[in-house]
Amino acid sequence: MSERESMPCDVVIVGGGVAGLAAAIRLKQVDENLEVVVLEKGSEIGAHILSGAVVDPKALDELLPEWRSMDCPMAETPVTDNWHWAMSKNGKTSLPHLAMPPLMSNKGCYTGSLGNLCRWMAEQAEGMGVMVFPGFPASEVMFDESGAVAGVVTQDMGIAADGSQKSDYQPGMEIQAKYTFFAEGARGNLTKKMKAQFDLEADCEPQVYGLGVKELWDIDPDKHEPGRVIHTQGWPLSESDTWGGGFLYHQANGQVALGFVTALDYKNPYVSPFQEFQRWKQHPAIREYLEGGKRVAYGARAINEGGWQSVPKLAFPGGALIGCAAGFVNVPRIKGSHTAMKSGMLAAEAAAAAIAGGHEKTELADYDANLRESWIATELKKVQNAQPLVAKYGGDIGTILAGADMWMRTIKIGLPIKMKHHRDYEELQRADLHTPIAYPKPDGEISFDRLTSVSYSYTNHAEDQPNHLKVKDLELQRSSELDVFAGPSTRYCPAGVYEWVTEGEAEPKFVINSQNCVHCKTCDIKDPNQNIEWTTPEGGGGPNYPNM
Fold it and tell me: CA-CA distance, 511 to 291, in Å (whole number)?
């Protein structure tokens, strides 16, 4: 520790997504003299950002009211056309707009690259004096003598796989702060530790997740309808008693963003979310948009799906959770950017007021209280039973019940109940209870294999560094993950990181191709024994998403 340089500031923000950047901007709006630092583990702001995205501008309107005239890339494509399809194997049924609760409307929303929105927001923040440091992941949390969070330490650089220091070794820096915001996104490594350290989930349901797999395509200009938004449900997940859905958004520059979300509470260990996505693209209604086009990018990321009842305690001595680190995704709307931004803004206002009052490293109780009285709470309470109803009763009946519950809550006659969640890894069943799924081979035109797909994420990790994917007990991995569950890691990972390799008569060996990792965090969530832990790799490693 004596080797480390230190840097004091008022607020350090771990994560350069929309929540972290909105917090940074709001801090400077409240008090331009505040010293604000944003740490981002990606090689640049936006490099690790993956989302559909259709963005509700509500929070952006509050933060930067003139954003539409400020060359913001999200302003390029307002939503013009909104469809929701229930899919069968070869057909589809359009769900009528009148049957949807008003909150499901995309009127007034915009579709585009969330990564590019973050890049633009970072420019605004830096113009206000925020210090933004891409390529510097926070690897550990510092505490003062009272146990309050006192800042973070950035990742050491130049550590070899065997733990020795290479010639380019540089120790991490201590960022000492009066308040630390954790804006790591879903299933952040430090966020997990803060939840455990301060027992933040004592009074809420466990967080549950989906895995979103996404591609960006250049399509035939004659097929492109700027602003068209399509969501689907049903096939192909209906065939494996799993649930989730797809999206296809017509964005700027003749491109469509398309993707598929699989809820990670699935029971069948033979399910492969990546290959379900490849099947979905072959549906006639989706394939017709892609034929004659070209895939230009690929990525994957876990998504919070727990909703309001999974929101933990948000503030603790010296720190706060904001954005998807806390989990504010509106699952039926497939939106979380606006709620993430608003949470960052509320945390910023609370921290700025505390600092102005001469306080530091206190618990920002006003942030937690104000958020629970904000429009975030109003919105998420309307949909709080949608995910658990579908999870419990399946895609067809569950969707009908979820719709009825949302309508009742919209007109304020909803039942005063919060349905419970079960942790995703607990839902996985033994392999002998299921039949292996025979997925079709990729055709190389519409559907692809995983390793080819990873090359379109532009993922890179420095050579000769410690493996950031930690297996706690290799024997448990073999005796349970492989022998009992048939090696689901080889299927749930969308990047081909995990393999079970058998050579001769030797016992199977668990191979981890960590250089392929796109930082989706699925292994950390779905491993049936919670035996795999995702940790932060060397700064700048991972995907480098363009326009995602």
Answer: 36
CA distance 133 to 16: 9
Alpha-carbon distances, residue 220 vs 6, 111, 146, 290, 547 (angstroms): 53, 19, 61, 8, 19
Instruction: Pick left, alpha or beta for residue 485 (phi over 0 → left; psi -120 to 50 → alpha; otherwise beta).
Output: alpha
Highest mean pLDDT among 90-99, 115-124, 233-242, 392-401: 115-124
Q: Taking residues 115-130, report their average pLDDT.
A: 98
Q: Please say if the pLDDT value at position 439 is more than 50.
A: yes
Q: What share of the chain is helix, strand, coil (3-state, %, to 5)?
A: 30, 25, 45
CA distance 377 to 323: 13
Its pTM stands at 0.95
Q: Residue 8: is the preceding peptide bond cis (ω within 30°)?
A: no
Residue 13 confidence (pLDDT) above 50: yes
Query: What SS3 state is found at 338?
Result: helix
Residue 478's identity, in one-letter code, is: R
Separation between Cα atoms, residue 155 and residue 140, nearest integer Å: 8
Cα 107 to Cα 57, 60, 96, 423: the distances in Å are 11, 16, 15, 34
Q: Which three-class secondary structure string do you get for 249-311?
A: EECCCCEEEEEEEEECCCCCCCCCHHHHHHHHHCCHHHHHHHCCCEEEEEEEEEEECCCHHHC
What is the largest distance, in Å, between two alpha-carbon atoms of the chain?
69
Distance from chain centroid for Cα 519:
10
> Does the pLDDT value for residue 1 go beyond 60?
no
Which tokens belong to 294?
């070209």
* Separation CA 50–CA 456 (nearest Å): 13
Note whether 45 and 544 are within 8 A (CB): no
Extract the tokens encoding 470: 């930690």
